[in-house]
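USER: Please consider what follows.
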Amino acid sequence: MLKKEFVEPRNIFFGSERKVKREVVSGYAKSFDGTDIWFRRTYPVKRMENFWPLVLCNGIGTTIRYWRYVEDYISNITDVILWDYRGHGRSGFPKSQDVSIKALADDMKAVCDANGIKYAIFGGFSLGVQVILEFYRNYPDMVKGLIPALGPYENPAKFFMNMPITEKVLDIVASLAFMNPDRAQKIWASIMVPSFAFKIGKTVGLISEKLFFLNPVLAHIDDFTEYFENLRKMDFTLFLRIAIEAKKHSAEDILEKVNVPTLVIAGESDIFTPLHVLLKIARKIKNSELLILPKGSHGGLVEHAELVCLRIEKFIRDHPKEQTKGSK
């Protein structure tokens, strides 16, 4: 059952509000194993132009927060669909043991089916880059455009701070957590207290803009606190299980096969997905477009909200239905 919600404009960065009436519906899609996947669809009441819907997916441990400015801005011209991964936010805990990248891509397919979406532009943040590339592998005919943002095409642990040792650290932490999940959950929750995490992050980030998830000078405090609050509530062993699946996954073989319009978004100072990783994606995908966010960290979507929104709008307007290859 779909639920209608009140649309609250977030004109934080933009000078003037566009007078477009919008509606929001939310609900649950039943995925392949019975897991309930929560989604929200925001759209203009009057569709004046012929643009593809925009379906967006998140990073591991995050909810729809980092796409909130894009949702608010782009929903003035087309449908924007956001959803939470299994075990994240308002989605249900996985009904099966499958938390692979393929499972997440299938969850997104269930969201599309629940909304009657046969074709769309798909954007992914962080882990979401692997998800949209895996989606393209399995459902290429549905994809009319890709927006890989601040994420790798494979194994995120390999690229973190350009230190491959992170892979070993992940394996060690996972082994310890799986031995005593209750203890691990308590430690995780205590570390992720928003006020504590923000103080540490701001101190570290002010020492070096390249040493933290978000740039404390560019981002708003709300973008810090909500992120850590979501992490604190999440099942830590599930987080690790998904991280291990991401470590095993690769979509490098897909890059040169992509033949739809693609906008790659990279952060100049991103330590989670260093710039060279996104440059490789842009180089491998023929005729792709590239946006580099100045001093942007892994949270560049909120640090440079206005730039990101305007560039995505241009990308959507440049590739309307009637001009996109294979449009229907």
Summary: Residues 165-179 form the longest helix (15 residues). Confidence is low (pLDDT under 50) at residues 204-211.
